[in-house]
């Protein structure tokens, strides 16, 4: 058992959309709002009180300051996504290939200048960031899934990625700054 009181391999992360802690298991890609079975509740409570107290903001503010970038994305989930549901579909049943075809169509429209990623994300993205045009705000290394992070940090401001696959689904990523 770690100092957090969580079972082995479980981590505490901060939700980008809500700004609050959640629990994540990197090997299984499971994430949850409630602590996982086998948690030492007293240890977790003490850890959370020291690391995530409301006096002075979240733990994110106390992280070492490294390079931070800002990006937006358009996410298309599929039946194999770690959470195959979204704000617009309670159950996503499309295949990964169907998701890829949808995203290719979006990519073509954006690259042709018909529509911006931000405008398309508002109605087509399966991420809760859709209401903000897919804007994820500023993040640093270690804040996002590795594939997403590598692609985003590899872009120049104003540049858009090709299709990027993560456990969440398929993304188009546009670096803002």
From TrEMBL:
Residues 23-69 are annotated as: Disordered. Keywords: Isomerase, Kinase, Rotamase, Transferase. This is Peptidyl-prolyl cis-trans isomerase. Its EC number is 5.2.1.8. Residues 66-177 form the PpiC domain. Residues 51-64 have a biased composition (Polar residues). GO terms for molecular function: kinase activity; peptidyl-prolyl cis-trans isomerase activity. It comes from the Eukaryota. CDD domains: WW. InterPro entries: PPIase_dom_sf, PPIase_Pin1, PPIase_PpiC, WW_dom, WW_dom_sf. Signal peptide: none annotated. The keyword Isomerase applies. Gene3D superfamilies: 2.20.70.10, 3.10.50.40. The gene is SSP1. One of its GO terms (biological process) is positive regulation of transcription initiation by RNA polymerase II. It catalyses: [protein]-peptidylproline (omega=180) = [protein]-peptidylproline (omega=0). Residues 4-38 form the WW domain. The keyword RNA-binding does not apply. One of its GO terms (cellular component) is cytosol.
């Amino acid at each position: 058992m770690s100092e957090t009181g969580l079972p082995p391999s479980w981590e505490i992360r901060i939700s980008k959309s809500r700004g609050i802690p959640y629990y994540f298991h990197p090997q299984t890609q499971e994430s949850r709002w409630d602590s996982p079975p086998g948690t030492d509740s007293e240890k977790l409570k003490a850890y959370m009180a020291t690391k995530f107290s409301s006096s002075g903001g979240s733990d994110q503010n106390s992280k070492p300051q490294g390079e931070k970038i800002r990006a937006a994305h358009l996410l298309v989930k599929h039946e194999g996504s770690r959470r195959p549901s979204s704000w617009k579909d309670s159950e996503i049943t499309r295949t990964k290939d169907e998701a890829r075809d949808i995203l290719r169509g979006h990519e073509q429209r954006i690259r042709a200048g018909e529509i911006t990623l931000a405008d398309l994300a508002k109605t087509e993205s399966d991420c809760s960031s859709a209401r903000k045009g897919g804007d994820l705000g500023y993040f640093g290394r270690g804040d996002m899934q590795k594939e997403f992070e590598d692609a985003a940090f590899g872009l120049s401001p104003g540049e858009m990625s090709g299709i990027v696959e993560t456990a969440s689904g398929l993304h188009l990523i546009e670096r803002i700054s």
